[in-house]
Amino acid sequence: MVFWVFGYGSLVWNPGFEYDEKIIGFIKDYRRVFDLACIDHRGTPELPARTCTLEEKEGAICWGIAYCVRGGPEKENLAMQYLEKRECEYDQKTLVSLYKEEDSLNPVLTGVIV
């Protein structure tokens, strides 16, 4: 299993897992919003921290980084387990297409996990 995952928040500057390749680009019809109250990684029950999530919005774009993980089942499973634990609050996975600035009509990647 080779997979690509799109980072649009803290994964951009701190992926936290071993990856083989990365591509800067954007996804369409989603926008980054800071409306998720978090007490797991930051914040407290009394003062939850705002963390970002994606919200569907037609015509919007969201810039980020797509990371590729390949190299065999062990490496790929470790990365996916890490991501599932880190992003446990956001258990809905969606597949999107990634575009680059040079060509906003034709995706450079499809089937990217977000």
Number of helices: 2
| Average pLDDT for all residues | 89
Q: How far apart, in Å, are the first and last alpha carbons? A: 16 Å
Q: Count the beta strands.
A: 5
Radius of gyration: 15 Å
Structure classification: alpha+beta
Shape: flat
Helix content: 10-25%
Strand order in the largest sheet:
1-3-2
Order of helix and strand elements from N to C terminus: EHEEHEE
Question: DSSP strand (E) fraction?
Answer: over 45%
Q: Could you name the ranges where pLDDT drops below 50 across 5 or more consecutive residues?
A: none
Major β-sheet profile: 3 strands, antiparallel
Characterize the structure shown:
The structure is a single chain. With 114 residues, the chain is α+β, with helices and mostly antiparallel strands. 16% of the residues lie in helices and 52% in strands. Strands 1-3-2 form a three-stranded antiparallel beta sheet. Strands 4-5 form a two-stranded antiparallel ribbon. It is flat and about 45 Å long. Keywords: Lyase, Transferase. One of its GO terms (cellular component) is cytoplasm. InterPro entries: ChaC, GGCT-like.
